């Protein structure tokens, strides 16, 4: 659900310490101070601190490059693996957006043959002047020198050089091509206590991807500011949202001279399909947890952070898979292996009113024979909206125990939401007890104000405190609370929300006000007066004209009735503070980042919230969500010591994938949100979080039949497949519309048979760092035409999906990559080869209910049968689709284990290879898979096998072999008798 702050309200300037909330502001106040919940509503005026213009939009903002002195390098010492140097200010300090740091230490390491680190930190004489926060290795993994690395840099593909002309600058170059990947030549290094800046030129029309989290096209373009700062906001285009991932992949294309083989760099938009190209990709990762922004401009990239250090890592690649694998391995960020059941379909909504509601939902999925694996519940189930307790009236523990026992007996699962803030009770009201807070407070589990008092914000239950993940007490307390909750509600995984971390007020607004305890957030909830949901997707006015007109009229009436002063800020100030050297202002840093919420305290806890060791949230905001996922992972291991934790979290940092998956947050029931989901998924592939999906059919606004029809089919190819929508909108479970029932089943009858393939992809991602969902440009790296394709995607190397992403059409445009190099594609449904032209968008028939899917020639795809749960699907026989390449070859692989164990007792890995009219399966491993092999289908067989077909040398009866001379498909059935010990119990060979 996420339920970001759903409505803008009036702004007012408040300090970020305690805010006094007089009773006069309350809509209604209980006359009894000791009542269980005083009838006080948090006023809208406390929601905002300031809403300021970022420096990049301030025409009078001073350019640091024009006034700051830069540095000079001295004491340069070459070492076995790189060099060290001292950097000293090259002139008078500018103290522009902070205090210039006089002296810095530079350390350069050739860490592996394809990774180079450049580390610049302040020089400290002793700990007394250690004021700059540097990320601890214990908090965030730090790439280290490879023990097997060569003792000289000459064997590395990356080279580092530096100069002092006119000030210190460094350059990273690729030796194999001579290409400069990054250089600060021609610019100055800025290093202040609250502002760092470094910049590098880039080629024309460069291809950069990553730098999340945001809603933007996959290829970022050269007029974009990527802000790395988590924000609780519902999917705004181009602004920062929930996660922080300071990494980018850059791909450069080189034209190959057909006579000499020499290469020359091209623009990112090279479009001549008759020419030959090759590409080189590299990655850049900044290990810095401070708020920062990355300015992508024509021919230049600029990094600006609000503190910390320059801790850069360059990955040579030279391909996207090589970059991603090296990045994830070196940062201890290989993604978690998921349980098998998590690949099943999942259903949720904000608005289920009790166990009877979710039981009805489960029954309807069964009634319409639509697969359902997991039911999710939003904050509705929480007693008084407080974590770790249920509403006793409609979500009683006893009724839940009965329902969940029945659900589990059917092979289905249950995941509840857990919010990130903890209710703090009214100390003047003895009946307002909340034991989780008491237990946490006893062990120092919560963040404090600078004066040592509890930092108290406001979230769904009212005034709340926030766990301090640097406190050992918080870690233990969180594990204990989740464990105790599981004894009451037998959940199977956890959904972490609001973890940016979000607060409904600016500052410690609950300090001194706990006796008030607001009963409502400072904005209207969907469905309440002034916030009735009238929104529908584009095209609804055509398919449902009468309803659309009524909704439009209602929306207009609601809009005209709304008070302008209550929804629109009177003005947005330009914030230009004066910097006092030596003084650090964390609440209002002099440099204003391009935060979509304005002031960095808006809809978040304040930067001066203080951790147990004195560190402030100013340094830790970007990794708060990262840390709660770690703590939750430990909690689930405590409950299920032998099972892999299943967690979906909202706020992530680079490396979060080793604990959790992610969903795309509060998207809209709009066609544009469905389109953007592809770019989101591909970006999170780069970030090492393959377990990704979005709220299918949209979260905010009303969906409709056509949108949900198309979206349920697209999401069927995402690893995390969930439908979810907001309070008061129309229901959008797939059984609500007849055509959506059929389209959902059509897509699921592809997804569920492919679960063995998808599970294998997840295993490879977990063990090697490969990706599950892939951009076309990654699999076909030498075609510049694919650099900007984000309207279609690949599931692994073998399944191409070309979805319809607009309303009121029955065709879709799609490109078939690799055609010029002889790549072969087969239509999933007809199993026949596709006739396509290299470099051309083909028009493909796609009537409502049909999603074009294609199999790549050269692939062997293991399958099992369609079923309503993954448990039942796993208990069906196997089959294989072997799609031959133009050369008559194919290969594939399968990973099998028990589907849940952290450390399986046994595993099985099968390799498939087809060549010379022979398909071979070679198993390795001790895991016993009892299911037999039933069928093998071979696509692209040019002629009938005149000598018959043999399996392990035994000629199969003619009744088991069929050949279609029109489609060139060879079908082999009746193999169960030959594989009764299990499909992969032994090596076998099929010849035709």
TrEMBL record:
Keyword Glycoprotein: yes
Domain Glycoside hydrolase family 31 TIM barrel as annotated: residue spans: 335-761
Alphabetized GO MF terms: alpha-1,4-glucosidase activity; carbohydrate binding
Main EC class the enzyme belongs to: hydrolase
UniProt keywords, alphabetically: Glycoprotein, Glycosidase, Hydrolase, Signal
InterPro entries: Gal_mutarotase_sf_dom, GH, Glyco_hydro_31_AS, Glyco_hydro_31_C, Glyco_hydro_31_CS, Glyco_hydro_31_TIM, Glyco_hydro_b
Reaction catalyzed: Hydrolysis of terminal, non-reducing (1->4)-linked alpha-D-glucose residues with release of alpha-D-glucose
Extent of the signal sequence: 1-26
Domain spans labelled Glycosyl hydrolase family 31 C-terminal: 769-861
GO BP terms in the entry: carbohydrate metabolic process
PROSITE patterns tied to this protein: GLYCOSYL_HYDROL_F31_1, GLYCOSYL_HYDROL_F31_2
UniProt protein name: alpha-glucosidase
UniProt organism field: Xylona heveae (strain CBS 132557 / TC161)
């Amino acid at each position: 659900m996420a339920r970001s702050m759903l409505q803008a309200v009036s702004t007012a300037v408040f300090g970020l310490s305690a805010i006094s909330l007089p009773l006069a502001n309350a809509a209604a106040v209980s006359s009894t101070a000791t009542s269980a919940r005083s009838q006080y509503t948090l006023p809208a005026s406390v929601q905002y601190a300031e809403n300021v213009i970022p420096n990049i939009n301030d025409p009078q903002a001073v350019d640091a490059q024009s006034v700051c002195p830069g540095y000079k390098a001295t004491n340069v010492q070459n070492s076995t693996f790189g060099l060290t140097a001292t950097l000293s200010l090259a002139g008078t300090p500018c103290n522009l957006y902070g205090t210039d740091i006089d002296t810095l230490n530079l350390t350069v390491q050739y860490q592996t043959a394809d990774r180079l680190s450049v580390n610049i930190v302040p020089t400290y004489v002793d700990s007394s002047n250690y004021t700059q926060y540097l990320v601890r290795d214990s908090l965030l993994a730090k790439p280290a020198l490879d023990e097997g690395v060569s003792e000289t840099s000459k064997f590395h593909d990356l080279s580092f050089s530096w100069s002092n002309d006119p000030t210190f600058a460094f350059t990273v170059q690729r030796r194999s091509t001579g290409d400069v990947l990054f250089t600060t030549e021609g610019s100055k290094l800025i290093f202040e206590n609250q502002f760092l800046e470094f910049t590098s030129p880039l080629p024309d029309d460069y291809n950069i991807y990553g730098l999340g989290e945001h809603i933007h096209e996959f290829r970022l373009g050269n007029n974009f500011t990527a802000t790395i700062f988590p924000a609780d906001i519902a999917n705004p285009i181009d602004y920062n949202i929930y996660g922080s991932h300071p990494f980018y992949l850059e791909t450069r294309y080189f034209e190959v001279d057909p006579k000499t083989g020499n290469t020359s760099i091209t623009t990112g938009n090279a479009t001549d399909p008759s020419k030959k190209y090759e590409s080189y990709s590299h990655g850049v990762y900044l290990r810095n947890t401070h708020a920062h922004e990355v300015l992508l401009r024509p021919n230049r990239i600029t990094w600006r952070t609000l503190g910390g250090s320059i801790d850069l890592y360059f990955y040579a690649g030279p391909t996207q898979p090589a970059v991603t694998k090296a990045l994830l391995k070196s940062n201890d960020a290989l993604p978690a292996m998921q349980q098998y059941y998590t690949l099943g379909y999942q259903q949720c909504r904000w608005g289920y009113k009790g166990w009877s509601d979710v039981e009805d939902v489960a029954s309807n999925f069964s009634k319409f024979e639509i697969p359902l694996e997991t039911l999710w519940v939003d904050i509705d189930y929480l007693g008084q909206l407080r974590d770790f307790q249920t509403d006793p009236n409609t979500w009683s523990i006893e009724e839940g125990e009965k329902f969940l026992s029945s659900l589990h007996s059917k092979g289905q699962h249950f995941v509840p939401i857990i919010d990130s803030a903890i209710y703090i009770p009214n100390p003047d009201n003895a009946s307002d007890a909340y034991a989780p807070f008491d237990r946490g407070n006893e062990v120092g589990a919560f963040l404090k104000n600078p004066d040592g008092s509890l930092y108290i914000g406001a979230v769904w239950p009212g005034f709340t405190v926030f766990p301090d993940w640097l406190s050992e007490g918080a870690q233990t307390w969180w594990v204990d609370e989740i464990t105790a909750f599981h004894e009451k509600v037998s959940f199977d995984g956890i959904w972490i929300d609001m973890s940016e971390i979000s607060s409904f007020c600016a500052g410690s607004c609950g300090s001194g006000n706990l006796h008030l305890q607001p009963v409502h957030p400072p904005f209207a909830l969907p469905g309440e007066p002034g916030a009735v949901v009238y929104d529908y997707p584009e095209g609804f006015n055509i398919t449902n004209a009468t309803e659309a007109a009524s909704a439009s009229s209602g929306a207009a009436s609601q809009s005209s009735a709304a008070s302008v002063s209550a929804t629109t800020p009177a003005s947005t100030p330009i914030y230009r503070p004066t910097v006092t050297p030596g003084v650090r202002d964390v609440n209002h840093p002099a440099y204003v980042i391009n935060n979509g919420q304005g002031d960095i305290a808006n809809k978040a806890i304040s930067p001066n919230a203080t951790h147990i060791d004195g560190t402030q949230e100013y340094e830790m905001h970007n990794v708060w969500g990262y840390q709660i996922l770690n703590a939750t992972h430990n909690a689930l291991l405590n409950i299920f010591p032998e099972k892999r934790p299943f967690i979906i979290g909202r706020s992530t940092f680079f490396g979060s994938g080793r604990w959790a998956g992610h969903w795309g947050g509060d998207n809209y029931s709009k066609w544009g949100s469905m389109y953007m989901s592809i770019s989101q998924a591909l970006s999170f592939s780069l970030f090492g979080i393959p377990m990704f999906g979005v709220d299918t059919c949209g979260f905010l606004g009303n969906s409709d039949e056509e949108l949900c029809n198309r979206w349920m089919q697209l999401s069927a190819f995402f690893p995390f497949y969930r439908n979810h929508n907001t309070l008061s909108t129309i229901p959008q479970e797939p059984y609500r519309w007849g055509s959506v029932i059929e389209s959902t089943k059509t897509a699921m009858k592809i997804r569920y048979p492919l679960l063995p393939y998808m599970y294998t992809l997840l295993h490879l991602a977990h063990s090697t760092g490969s990706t599950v969902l892939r951009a076309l440009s990654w699999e076909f790296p030498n075609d510049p035409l694919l650099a900007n394709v984000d309207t279609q995607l690949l599931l692994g190397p073998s399944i191409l999906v070309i979805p319809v992403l607009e309303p009121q059409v029955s065709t879709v445009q799609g490109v078939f990559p690799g055609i010029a190099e002889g790549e072969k594609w087969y239509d999933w449904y007809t199993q026949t080869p596709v006739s396509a032209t290299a470099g051309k968008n083909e028009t493909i028939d796609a009537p409502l209910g049909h999603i074009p899917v294609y199999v790549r020639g050269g692939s062997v795809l293991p399958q099992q049968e369609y079923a309503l749960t993954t448990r039942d699907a796993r208990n069906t026989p196997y089959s294989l689709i072997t799609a031959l390449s133009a050369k008559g070859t194919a290969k594939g692989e399968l990973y099998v284990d028990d589907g849940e164990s952290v450390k399986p007792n046994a595993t099985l890995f099968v390799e498939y290879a087809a060549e010379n009219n022979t398909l071979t399966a070679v198993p390795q491993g001790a895991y016993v898979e009892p299911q037999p092999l039933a069928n093998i289908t071979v696509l692209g067989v040019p002629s009938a096998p005149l000598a018959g077909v043999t399996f392990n040398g035994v000629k199969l009866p003619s009744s088991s072999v069929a050949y279609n001379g029109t489609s060139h498909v060879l079908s082999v059935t009746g193999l169960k008798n030959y594989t009764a010990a299990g499909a992969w119990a032994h090596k076998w060979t099929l010849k035709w």
